[in-house]
Amino acid sequence: MTRARLSGDERRSQILDAVLPVVLECGSDVTSKQLAEAAGVAEGTVFRAFGDKDSLLIALLERETGERLSSDDITAIRPSSLEDLVTIASALLVDRFVRVFRLFVVLGPLAARAPQNDMEEKLVALHAALETQFEPFREELRVPPSSAAEALRTLAFAASSNWGRGEAFIKPDDIAPLLLHGIVGQPNPATDPGQLLSAVPTTLP
């Protein structure tokens, strides 16, 4: 039984899937031979599909950026609480941002040649999806849902800016308590205004 012949787009997608690990390992120094071996095809097949090595690497970055910055997973969240929403969304965002940052780092100057318009559109859509998710919890928020969405996206983005080391500076599990409760621990009676007021006698001698 003969296999169905792949279309050009299917072949390119298959090659990109296969070469991602070696690109993350070698960056823009990866050779066309390494790419072909990773994809299990001849070098000529790689060149016919993408033209040259740089075009393949840019296509890989475009695809990964588009998929990783997609708002679909955020839209699909069905949170049971505000904390549940922030916890789940944090994990999703950091996972995606880390991969995108890592690719940008390993590809170096070549990454600057990738079109930026699509990325900006994806980030706008991502913000809108987060804002929509925060809307049902408006009464619990001290800021508008739009500001909450921007705070979460910014914190996840910053946590993922690890210069390609493969792990976030701030763990996803720490983002929810940090965003919802801040960095302050138990109130200090010596400095907390509420504690100071409660210590004032209610009647004068």
Automatic annotation (TrEMBL):
InterPro entries: Homeodomain-like_sf, HTH-type_TetR-like_transc_reg, HTH_TetR. Keywords: DNA-binding. Residues 31-50 bind DNA. GO terms for molecular function: DNA-binding transcription factor activity; transcription cis-regulatory region binding. Gene3D superfamilies: Tetracycline Repressor, domain 2. Residues 9-68 form the HTH tetR-type domain. This is TetR/AcrR family transcriptional regulator. SUPFAM superfamilies: Homeodomain-like (SSF46689). Pfam families: TetR_N (PF00440).
